[in-house]
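Known limitations

Structure tokens in this collection are predictions and should be treated as such. Users comparing against experimental data should check residue numbering before alignment. To illustrate the layout, the record for Apoptosis-inducing factor 3 is reproduced below. The input appears on top and the generated tokens appear beneath it.
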Amino acid sequence: FLFVPAVEVKIEVVIPEKERSKEEMSPNGKASPLIYKVNGTARHYHLEEHPMASNPYHNPKDVVEASVCHVKDLENGQMREVDLGCGKALLIKESGEFHAVGHKCPHYGAPLVKGVLSKGRVRCPWHGACFNIGTGDIEDFPGLDSLPRFQVKIEKEKVYIRASKQALQTQRRTKMMAKCISLSNYNLSSTNVLIIGAGAAGLVCAETLRQEGFSDRIVMCTMDRHLPYDRPKLSKSMDSHPEQIALRPKEFFRTYDIEVLTEMQVAAVDIKNKTAVFKDGFKMEYNKLLIATGNTPKALSCKGKEVENVFNIRTPEDANRVVKLATSKNVVIVGASFLGMEVAAYLAERAHSVSLVELEEVPFKKFFGERVGRAVMKMFESNRVKFYMQTEVSELREQEGKLKEVVLKSGKVLRADVCVVGVGAVPATGFLKQSGINIDSKGFIVVNKMMQTNIPGVFAAGDAVTFPLALRNNKKVNVPHWQMAHMHGRVAALNMLAHGMEISTVPYLWTAMFGKSIRYAGHGEGFDDVVIQGDLDELKFVAFYTKSDEVVAVASMNYDPIVSKVAEVLAASRTIRKRDVE
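Generated tokens:
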């Protein structure tokens, strides 16, 4: 019989200091673009570091310590949400060791205790973000922040957690970042890194560079008039104002010297002279370039397409305007795409009528398959949405310049005060036609696993690229989803810094309609069968998409955390056979 004395485990947590006051300026004063051209000058790294004192809690009053359980209360591989009196933490036991981190996913606040624990990381049950349980660092997306990590100690068989009250309340941690070092060679029209596009890919690229200690000039430019915002909310929460859905506040960009040029369109890229030419004639030299321009929605090509009150939803203003015009009025949505269906769901309670026009026989047929598509369609019909399937729009009619009716090819005439078009999109890459950057026949930028194009120093990310998907034997695919854009941006940044990082993430997406969510992981393109468990009529099911004998994707409704579980299995490069799920 072996006697093991009580072991005391101490893990210190470093809590980021409270954000500097808004008045405090970045080293460059009011975002003044002090930069230097790369010419072999030594790089100075200046991390926003908080010194690791022997006790990292600067203010003892901010610290709480509590006994949360007995060591035997948790088995290996178990998680438990524990209350410290002024906030909760997630306690995890893996391989005999205890870890404590924030209990909520910083993305949308999902309870991580309901997520999936696997090999040192926890995956969010809602949208698939992954966090390292030892450090709290974010390892897969969506979202930008990491989890706070708390100190765990074991005394007399009891587990204690010591934490900062502030961290328990905020439940998020921004990783330490470098700032721009102002060097000589001040030059407004030259930057070290130029990022074209300010969506998730562009922002994550800029943040990752700063997190890795990069201290040269970073410029992001966007045709949008806003700083980066949470684009999926445009169709899921259409009343949101730009500041409500901003991914980072204005001060953040100032603090970390990430310059954002709004309402600026790049017209051409000159790869020989490493210069971007803007529509207004302004030119900017770069050392490294990221192209993350996303896509452009397709317009209708029918008669009357220029009538007023016909929208593609591209900006918060578009979404807000549609809600205003649709309230108690007649809405026609063209295209049962993710955008079209989410808009229909959002407007169903607000509009007098919502009609949806689609070429296929059921919504989402190519993506979720016919049976899931029908179940979703039924849910919409029970919420007063009327479908006009296997037809398209032949004409938009107006009265005094404004939309009055939508005429279908079937001959049906629908009353319409506002029309939303969601019939797909094309990559926004027209400006690269003469550049020498490799673009495929559909207009997508072709990149390798490091997000590099065929031109050295030029990277591309997000909806506008095709890249090799590890999950599908490195087949070149386009995955126009929010989570994937984040990961592309991160991989591009690491490879700008020569880390040799290859992308291997599992695609993960979600859609929200009438308070219900469908979650999806994998890449189901070309699936030949769907195995369904659960009850489609009750909207409580999991659908496995198979190709030959292999599960290539999974979707679920009211069945958490199955999609995150499957994503973890696929992320570990394990094959799931059809017989395993039948």
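For this record: The mean pLDDT is 89. The chain has four domains: 63-170, 190-296+427-497, 310-423, 515-580. Please report discrepancies through the issue tracker.
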